[in-house]
Amino acid sequence: MIYQIYPRSFASSDGPVGDLPGITSRLEYVASIGVDAVWLSPFYRSPQRDHGYDVADYRDVDPMFGTLDDATALIDRAGELGLKVIVDLVPNHTSDQHPWFREALAAPQGSPARERYWFREGRGEDGELPPTDWESVFGGPAWTRVEDGQWYLHLFDSSQPDLNWDHPEVREEFDSILRFWLDRGVAGFRVDVAHGLAKDPTLPDFASHAAMIAGLDEDAPAGPEPMWDRDEVHEIYRRWRRVLDEYPESMMCGEVWVGDDERRSRYVRADEMHQCFNFAFLSSPWRAADIGGVIAASLAANDAVGAPTTWVLSNHDVIRTVSRMGLSETGKGPNGLFASDERPDLQLGERRAKAAQLLMLALPGAAYLYNGEELGLPEHDHLPDEARQDPAFERTGRAEPGRDGCRIPLPWQAEEPACGFSPSGQTWLPQPEGWEKYAADRQEEDADSYLNFIRQALAHRAHYRLGGASLTEREAPEGSLVYDIGELRVITVFTGSVPVPEGWQVLFASAPVEADIGPDTTVWLRRS
Question: Is this model's pTM higher than 0.90 or not?
Fold first, then answer.
């Protein structure tokens, strides 16, 4: 079980932005949840145009978050508590402030410095049109023109130029970056945009928005996409795997937004990655047929390559689970919420979120928990527009709210300013009214709190070794799923009700259960 920490929003030792000393001060709390490792979103030196996913120096800590010594102290303290540390790696693009890109801008057209990126001539009479019709994930064109007339590719913000992974210097540099952090004691890497590194070198038009999810854009032209999930990307990870194999027990997990189960499973073949997020599970509507189909297909595809499945319900890029589950249409949800949008039914959302998390935690394989998910935090769904900082908000002409609503600084102490997030009482994003009711100290004292629900679930998961258990699907009443997982029977009821089967007794449940299991409930049962 791995716990994701979004450093800006986790805990601050000084000022409005979270930092590494703040994280270190709260690691005992993280260990008490019952997780095995933490994954830290980027803390590298960065101009913070995309909150650290625009890296200017992969071997240094941004002063906003602390120092390299602070990183070492965090890794050491985590080790004392039995926690491994995984760090984010951002290989698809750098910041436009990275020394390589600055060198490229200062160099003439056709120079070796520009070959590390995707610089191309424009179209039109005077090169005034972008080289292709590709659009950015964040909205707008995926190309920006520089002063001498050439254009450079950026699948995300214009401050994030894409690297050319056909260039040997790019590959050698990242070999070195991997070793730098492994030598400092990290246990592995979460790889950002892992399915996007290889591009079709001919850069063909594609007439489609680069929506991050390969294979799921119904309006995209037929055939392989020129920027996502190309076969050539796998040699990069085979190369990285050879580096990781030099460090016992190290690992890497891919952010792979690929809709096809078989193609997604290729990233976790024996000589590539160890884990790959199953975003199909996160994106599935809350219906028995949909969730059951995702579980069956995911397990079958990964079993075929001898790899575990990695389950996830939330992260720093999607609406928080409690709110998503409370919308009239469940699934991945929109890219954030405006105050004028449908307001989630948080009571329903919490019930469904608990059921979904208990189902996920029963499934064999690895699982990830996003910071604050253990507190049952909802999305900030009425964030003022003037407070929004996600580049997607402006690049879409303010049409998309962006991801700020799931990145609100965590509440630690109900009676403290900023709910104890920072000594100064400041936060980089405003906390919503009533945030104190979710505070960790208040939930610690409540045996029935969301926090203690997650702790109990993880304790049972570890005791019954569910992560490594076998799974058998059983015939289920309509509107429900039934699995035998290790020693337990797991029943999730989406609609209607299901009686507790004879010969079984309730071990743990996401909602109260008497003779029948009600809707939006998951129950773990053991034999009587």
Answer: yes
